[in-house]
Design goal:
Strand order of the largest sheet: 6-7-8-3-9-10
CATH class of the largest domain: Alpha Beta
Helix content: 25-40%
Largest sheet: 6 strands, mixed
C-alpha cells in the first residue's frame, strides 16, 4: 500500500443481530458462551509441554490479544487450538461445545477462521480468485453473495479484484488473506502475527483498518501479535504469556499501563510479571492464578 494508493476505510459496523427470544418475565437470561475458549489448556510437541494451564475467552465483537516475549508459547497456543499441536490437558471450546483436537478443516466448518502468519494467500491468483478459493465449500450463488458481504467490510478490495496478489503491497495482501478467511462466515477469526514483516505505518493500517474492523462488525477475534504495544492499543482484553503460562489477563489498557509487563518485554524477570498477573482484573473481578509463577517448560 503506497501513499498514492491508500486503502479505503472500512464501512461502519454492521447492525448486530438481535439476541433472540426474550426470557420470561422475572427470569434472568443465561450468559452466552464465549465464541472461543480454552480451559486449563496444556500442549506441546512429543513429550515436551510448551504451554501450561492456559485459560482464555473470546466473545462476539471482542478483540483479544495474546502477547509475550519470543519463545513464550504464543504460536503453540494457536496450534493447540487449531489441532496442530499435541494436547496434554485441558479443553478447547467453540460456542460452549468441546472441539479439543479437532482438525483445522473441521473447525472451519464449525465457524472458526484462521489466517496464518505466512502462506496466507495464493500469489499467482487474482484477488477475486483468492476469495473464491476461500469459499470453495459454498455454492456459486452463495459464494457470490458472500463475496459482496466481505467487500462491504473491506471496500478497498473491490477495485483490486482483478489484480494478481503477488503484485500487491504487504498490507493489501494481508487484507486479501483476512477477506479470504471471511468467505466461510466464521464467528471466530484467529490471526497469527498479521503485521509480521510490515512497516510501522502498515502495521497501524492492518491493525486499525482490518483487525479492529472485524471485531467492530461482531466477529470474535483472537490476535497473536509480536508488536505488543500496537496490539494492546486496539484490543479489548489481553493475555500475556511468559514461559508458557498466562502471567496477566486483563483489559488491554491495564496491560499496556502495567510496569511489570514492560519489564517482561524489556528483559525483566518472568516471576515478577507472573506475580503481577495474580492481581490482574478481568471484567472488574480479581483473577488469581495460583500457577502464575513460572519455572519454564
Amino acid at each position: 500500500m503506497s501513499s498514492a494508493d491508500p486503502m479505503e476505510p472500512a464501512a461502519g459496523p454492521a447492525p448486530r443481530p438481535a439476541g433472540g427470544t426474550s426470557p420470561p418475565a422475572g427470569t434472568a437470561a443465561a450468559p452466552a458462551s464465549p465464541a472461543l475458549a480454552t480451559r486449563q489448556l496444556a500442549a506441546g510437541y512429543g513429550d515436551v509441554p510448551v504451554i501450561h494451564g492456559v485459560d482464555l475467552e473470546v466473545r462476539a465483537g471482542q478483540l483479544v490479544a495474546v502477547v509475550g516475549p519470543n519463545g513464550a508459547g504464543k504460536s503453540t497456543l494457536l496450534k493447540a487450538i487449531l489441532g496442530l499441536a499435541r494436547i496434554m490437558g485441558g479443553q478447547v471450546l467453540a460456542d460452549g461445545n468441546e472441539v479439543t483436537g479437532r482438525p483445522l478443516e473441521e473447525l472451519v466448518r464449525l465457524g472458526v477462521g484462521y489466517v496464518p502468519q505466512v502462506d496466507d494467500v495464493f500469489d499467482p491468483l487474482k484477488v477475486s480468485e483468492n476469495l473464491n478459493m476461500g469459499g470453495y465449500l459454498l455454492g456459486k450463488d452463495e459464494r457470490a453473495t458472500r463475496m459482496e458481504e466481505v467487500l462491504a467490510i473491506f471496500p478497498a478490495l473491490r477495485s483490486r479484484l482483478n489484480r494478481y496478489v503477488g503484485t500487491m503491497s504487504g498490507g493489501e495482501r494481508k487484507m486479501t488473506a483476512i477477506a479470504r478467511a471471511l468467505m466461510m462466515s466464521p464467528r471466530v477469526l484467529i490471526l497469527d502475527e498479521p503485521t509480521a514483516g510490515l512497516s510501522a505505518a502498515l502495521t497501524e493500517a492492518v491493525l486499525n483498518d482490518q483487525v479492529r474492523t472485524l471485531a467492530d462488525h461482531g466477529h470474535a477475534v483472537l490476535l497473536v501479535e509480536q508488536k505488543a504495544q500496537a496490539a494492546l492499543r486496539l484490543a479489548d482484553v489481553a493475555s500475556v504469556l511468559v514461559q508458557g503460562r498466562v502471567a496477566m489477563s486483563a483489559p488491554a489498557a491495564e496491560v499496556l499501563a502495567s510496569p511489570q509487563m514492560a519489564e517482561v518485554f524489556l528483559g525483566g524477570r518472568a516471576e515478577q510479571a507472573a506475580d503481577a498477573g495474580g492481581q490482574a482484573k478481568v471484567d472488574g473481578q480479581a483473577k488469581v492464578d495460583g500457577q502464575a509463577k513460572v519455572d519454564g517448560p
